[in-house]
Amino acid sequence: GAYVSLTLAVLVAVPWFQPRFLVPLAPLFLASFLSAILPRGPGRRARLVATILLTGTLGAALAGNALRLGSVRAAGLPALEETVAAGKTWTDIEGALAWIRSATAPGDVVASFHDPVVYLYTGRPAVQAYPSIWRPAPGQMTDMLAGSGARWLSDLPCPEDGVWAGARAAWRDWLATHRASLTPAYPGPVGVFRVDDALTRARPSGRS
Question: pLDDT tens, position by position, for the chain (208 residues)?
Fold first, then answer.
């Protein structure tokens, strides 16, 4: 009980864009729900109602899984990542990653919101560069790139609403301000930019 209460309190205090933190608690929620509504006692009526409720719960779960599986097949992305992709499909993302693999040198550093994905799928050194969800500011991008040695910046899909709305707005402001220092390099739906050396050789301001 204490674990569940603490987990829910943390989720309320620190909202996130994915529901995966509730997944481990789902069996507890289901057990509590069923224990509250299932009739008690050994009678025939109690068994019949319990069978109907359990069958209905299982049917609803299977129907929900079928709907989610259809969406996953269409996007090519895990269900928990679909909200992150902002309308993109895995084909869009894979195209950008394939371009990075083929068009960049092995030692080129790539900056991105999804730096682990860049590293795992391209083998290129990667650093994270994206405004924070807490008090986002365009200058945070400049400070993250400063001294990173990044030669490329990839705009892999990331959340655009909810708690991430401010960070996305700061990202767009930064792109508009530094457009002259960013050369579009990949023509696909996922942006990849060549970064001017002046952005990566600067020293962090320490103010963002």
Answer: 566 676 667 666 665 545 566 667 777 777 777 777 776 767 777 778 778 877 887 888 788 777 777 766 766 655 545 545 556 778 888 899 999 999 999 999 999 988 988 999 999 999 999 998 888 999 999 899 988 889 999 988 777 777 788 998 999 999 999 999 999 999 888 899 999 988 877 665 555 5
| Residue 191 neighbours by CB under 8 Å, 6+ apart | 96, 154, 155, 184
Beta strands 109-112 and 150-154: pairing type?
parallel
Non-local (6+) Cβ contacts of 4 within 8 A are: 25, 28
Collapse the DSSP code of 184 into the 3-class scheme (helix H, G, I; strand E, B; otherwise coil) and give the result: strand
Cα–Cα distance between 112 and 127 in angstroms, integer? Answer: 7
Task: Give the integer Cα–Cα distance in Å for 141 and 128.
Answer: 9
Structure tokens at 119: 């590293």
pTM score of the predicted model: 0.65
If phi over 0 gives left and psi between -120 and 50 gives alpha, with beta otherwise, what is residue 73? Answer: alpha
